[in-house]
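for the recovery benchmark. C-alpha cells below, seq after
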C-alpha cells in the first residue's frame, strides 16, 4: 500500500493504485481548494516533496498549466490530473499557494 502525507493538513492516509490525488484529498477532508477539477485552473497545484516517481506521468494538460504559471514540472503536479501508480511507497505533498 502507498501512504500519502498531506503536509499542510497533517493528514496521512493509505491509498490504492489508480486514485487521483484530488480524490484522495477530498475523501480525507483536506483543506485544498479545487476549482475546475479538469486541469485548467491550477488551483490544485501541489509540490511533491517525496515520491514523485510513484505518480502517473505528467500529461499534456499539466504541462500547459505549469508553463502558463512559469513553474518547473519536476516537482509540481496538478492533484486533479495525477494518480498513484505504485503498489508501495510514500508520497508527501504540500499545497502550492
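predicted aa per position
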Amino acid at each position: 500500500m502507498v501512504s500519502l502525507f498531506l503536509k499542510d493538513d497533517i493528514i496521512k492516509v493509505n491509498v490504492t493504485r489508480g486514485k487521483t490525488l484530488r480524490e484522495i484529498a477530498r475523501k480525507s477532508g483536506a483543506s485544498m481548494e479545487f476549482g475546475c477539477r479538469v486541469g485548467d485552473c491550477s488551483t490544485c497545484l501541489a509540490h511533491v516533496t517525496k515520491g514523485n516517481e510513484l505518480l502517473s506521468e505528467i500529461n499534456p494538460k499539466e504541462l500547459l498549466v505549469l508553463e502558463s504559471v512559469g513553474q518547473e514540472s519536476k516537482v509540481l503536479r496538478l492533484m486533479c490530473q495525477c494518480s498513484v501508480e505504485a503498489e508501495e511507497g510514500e508520497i508527501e505533498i504540500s499545497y502550492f499557494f
